[in-house]
Amino acid sequence: MDCDGSQADKKAAWVTSRFEFWKYPELMANWPFAQEYEMTYRLSGGTLEVVTTVINKSAEPMPLALGYHPYYNLPGVPRDQAVAHIPAKTAVVTDSRLVATGELKPMDLPDPTPLGGRTLDNGYTDLIRDAQGHATFSVEGAGKKIEVTYGPKWIVAVVWEPANQNFICFEPMAGITNGVNLAYEGKYKDLQVLAPGATWTESFWVKASGI
User: Fold this and answer.
1) Distances, alpha carbon 202 to alpha carbons 13, 29, 31, 50, 147, in Å
2) Which value, to the nearest 10 degrees, does the dihedral of the CA atoms of residues 187, 192, 193, 197 take?
């Protein structure tokens, strides 16, 4: 992993790192596509933007199977006193191992969703977006709020809220869990595929208020 070092101007501060996946035979043995990743973390006006770029340097089309697993905690607010906004129309059906089956069902959570006494480990798609194609998730309580906004190419969200913990995860995903295998089986039509030599870039943003 190479890092450009941190930089700043009058409006923002940022750092960029790059990973040349194709240089590592042990990784290529498991995922045989020559690829590179670039990640930039940019803080501006109280909002953190995470920019991800993937370059397919191989001679074959490459399925995209990537996502993030960030944890969000409202300081000083018990999770049972918080509510979440999950802007999705459709939920992903999973098996007993919480692996997606390729089936979907209508979203069945209220909006907002009270987190008290609730455990979530679910995937969601058909995200509800604004005119710019952005979908914004949030958790809030006691006047404090964390918002997580997905760019258009983050098409799936996994929401994880385990028992006896005071955090919630809004995980931006390029596709559903097990999406590559399901697409091969003809059970998933929304798999994103990167053509040889092509570049994929998308952002998500995190903003806190009242904290």
Assistant:
1) 19, 27, 21, 8, 17
2) 180
Tokens read off for 194? 């990167």
Query: 153: which DSSP letter?
Result: T
pLDDT in tens, 126-139: 999 999 999 999 99
Sign of torsion, CA 127 155 139 119?
Answer: positive
Q: How far apart are CA 99 and CA 13, in angstroms?
A: 38
The model carries a pTM of: 0.94
CB burial of 126-140 (b: ≥16 within 10 Å; e: otherwise) equals: bbeeeeeebbbbbbb
Residues near 13 by beta carbon (within 8 Å), at least 6 away in sequence = 6, 7, 42, 43, 44
Cα 42 to Cα 17, 108, 164, 206, distances in angstroms: 12, 35, 32, 11
- Could you tell me if 200 and 35 are in contact, meaning their C-beta atoms sit under 8 angstroms apart? no
Q: Tell me what pLDDT residue 68 has.
A: 97
- How far is the C-alpha of 195 from the C-alpha of 206, rounded, in Å? 30
